[in-house]
Amino acid sequence: MKGRVFSGARPTGRQHIGNYLGAIQNYVKLQQDYECIYCAVDIHALTTLEGTENLKENIREMMLDWLAAGLDPEKSILFVQSHVPQVMELHTLLSMVTPLGWLTRVATFKEKARMQPHNINYGLVGYPVLMTADIVLYKADTVPVGQDQLPHLELAREIARRFNYTFGDTFPEPQALLSDFPAVIGLDGVNKMSKSLDNHIELAATPEETGERIMTAFTDPARKYRSDPGHPEICNVWRLHHFYNPNQVENIAAECRGALRGCVECKEQLAQGINAALAPFRQRRAELAARPQYVEEVLADGARRAHGIATETIREVKERMGLI
Ligand code: TRP
Description:
By secondary structure, the chain is mainly alpha-helical. It has helices at residues 17-30, 42-45, 55-69, 86-95, 100-104, 107-115, 122-125, 127-137, 150-167, 207-215, 236-244, 249-257, 263-290, 294-320, and strands spanning 3-9, 34-40, 77-80, 142-145, 175-178. Helix 10 packs antiparallel against helix 13 (263-290) and helix 11 (236-244) packs across helix 13 (263-290). The two termini are 30 Å apart.
């Protein structure tokens, strides 16, 4: 039997090349070997949001990127977390087998509490319980995530184990599936590419926007003048060439070291590589965006299918817990 994959992403709107290289391309690949369920976790987003006015738009933009990148609604279930409300029911039930100490010692909780001291809400503490509910509601056994999510996955396993121990075997213990892709560094040259740091390149950007953004990228500070020899190994533009001009990296490095190319040309070449690689994606995305109601239909169908699985699991959980 095929394993079942579940993964969730907070709806951050238009996705960037870091999201694609680090996660989305892996989601697409997994569709071949697993039954996949991919979710826009809008309720999780509420734990850190100041406002909710962009939430629905952000979900739509993320879904368009996922679909254009190759997530196939015929193969996979694509849905929005809050459209299948049983996850909140399961969250409450799982909270009864989750010691508070497990949650308050999670590093991401402490980190978020530090980032938003004015808003240390109850939902933030329960974040990993809701994430566990996401996964086990669908009895997923495999969860593709980044390194940063490993503590959450460990907790999910502990909660599932404790539930199984207390009420009888119900849930598989979900395994993290780490992608071997290295973190993609943003245009600032130091931090992981992220929208919140504004050091990113959107997949759906126009070729012109892409070029303009790359011109702002931080390069080797030793190259004040074109005649200064460079150190490609510390330059993020060079690192990005690995993904978009893979056959030319050696050549580019040699020219940089020998001061035979300037950073501006180097960035222009990177922009060309990115724009060429993304042209088919951008074309597909524009077509999907132009189809009225397409995303809404995909999400309604995904929610319907997810709902079917969720209903079964909730019935089983309630039976085991003595509620029905
Ligand atoms: N916590 C994850 C993140 O911040 C998102 C997420 C929510 C998730 N539920 C999930 C990831 C279930 C994997 C499985 O990226």
